[in-house]
């Protein structure tokens, strides 16, 4: 019963959020375009699906994804886990506290591994990224591979979240990381293939969507709460900025690497063709020379 009441409250809030969007869409359709909406009944049913789906999703975030992300961060940063204390040994509070004070950034290796893997897996499953990758493949005539783009973006997010987790552990100011990252993006923009640049910039946005954001946000807040000396407000936020920045770098890097490989292959093919043509010319010249010798002998 309590869960049903929570769902109805979330449904009410979702309805208030969706109504302005529906008002704009229907208002432009009837007041500006002045044409009836085709299959109005089907559209209204679709809006109902959206309301119920969003409500269930938001409730699921609150009940599952946020607690799981926070719990994983707490467990991975627990001094008892990092120091290797066994529950059977019943380590004293003083021993755990002493271990926490002596921890260094490299002691949180499992945190970085988890951040990398959760960033990669959630991005691969991101519906918005899948949609963009399919459209990019269609528009480019197959030049941009669906899986190539998805893996490039996922690797960027994974590296970004792992680096962001390191920043939380060591307590560095976030602005220096972001400024250096965008300097790299600007430099890459001058050298990357022109057709990939807008797509690379958009890739940073599609990663911060329904699947990635809840877990990443929960991970950052959980780390800031459990790592000694960190502020939840100052250090807990910012992982999503890393998840938006690094896919731009990785997608342009993927395009530059593909272009370099294609260039090397084209150069190798050209050299092979030149060698083959040279061999053919040599054979032809030898045949002509033999014919001239035979003609001389006959005369």
Task: Describe the overall structure.
This protein is an all-alpha fold. It has a domain at 112-283. 82% of the residues lie in helices and 0% in strands. The termini are far apart. The model has no long low-confidence stretch (mean pLDDT 82).
Task: Please describe the topology of this protein.
Blueprint: H1 2-33, H2 40-76, H3 79-83, H4 93-101, H5 109-124, H6 127-139, H7 146-170, H8 174-191, H9 197-206, H10 212-226, H11 232-235, H12 239-298
Helix pairs in contact: 1-2, 2-10, 5-7, 5-10, 6-7, 7-10, 7-12, 8-12, 9-12
Keywords:
299 residues, mainly alpha, 12 helices, 0% strand
Radius of gyration: 29 Å
The number of helical elements comes to 12
Structural class from helices and strands?
A: mainly alpha
Name the poorly predicted regions.
none
Q: Give the beta-strand count.
A: 0
Distance between the termini: 114 Å
- Average pLDDT taken over every residue: 82
Q: Would you list the SSEs in sequence order as H and E?
A: HHHHHHHHHHHH
Percent of residues in beta strands? under 5%
Give the overall shape, derived from the CA principal axes: flat
The largest sheet is: none
The helix content, as a percent range, equals over 70%
């Amino acid at each position: 019963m309590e869960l049903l009441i929570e769902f109805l409250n979330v449904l009410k809030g979702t309805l208030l959020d969706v109504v302005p969007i529906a008002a704009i869409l229907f208002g432009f359709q009837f007041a500006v375009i002045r044409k009836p909406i085709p299959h109005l009944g089907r559209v209204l049913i679709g809006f109902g699906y959206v309301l119920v789906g969003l409500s269930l999703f938001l409730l699921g975030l609150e009940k599952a994804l946020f607690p799981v992300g926070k719990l994983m961060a707490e467990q991975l940063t627990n001094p008892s886990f990092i120091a290797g204390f066994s529950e059977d040994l019943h380590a004293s509070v003083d021993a755990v506290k002493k271990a926490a004070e002596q921890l260094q950034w490299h002691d949180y290796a499992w945190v970085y591994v988890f951040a990398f893997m959760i960033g990669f897996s959630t991005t691969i499953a991101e519906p918005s990224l899948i949609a963009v990758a399919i459209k990019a493949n269609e528009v480019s005539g197959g030049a941009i591979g669906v899986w190539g783009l998805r893996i490039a973006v996922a690797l960027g997010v994974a590296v970004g979240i792992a680096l962001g987790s390191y920043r939380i552990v060591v307590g560095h100011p976030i602005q220096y990381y972001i400024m250096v990252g965008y300097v790299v993006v600007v430099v890459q923009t001058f050298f990357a293939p022109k057709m990939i640049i807008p797509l690379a910039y958009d890739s940073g946005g599609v990663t911060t969507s329904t699947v990635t954001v809840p877990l990443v946000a929960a991970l950052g807040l959980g780390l800031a709460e459990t790592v000694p000396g960190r502020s939840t407000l100052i250090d807990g936020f910012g992982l999503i900025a890393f998840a938006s920045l690094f896919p731009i770098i990785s997608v342009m890097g993927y395009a530059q690497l593909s272009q370099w490989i294609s260039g090397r292959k084209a150069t190798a093919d050209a050299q092979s063709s030149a060698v083959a043509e040279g061999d053919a010319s040599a054979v032809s010249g030898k045949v002509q020379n033999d014919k001239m010798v035979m003609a001389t002998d006959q005369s």
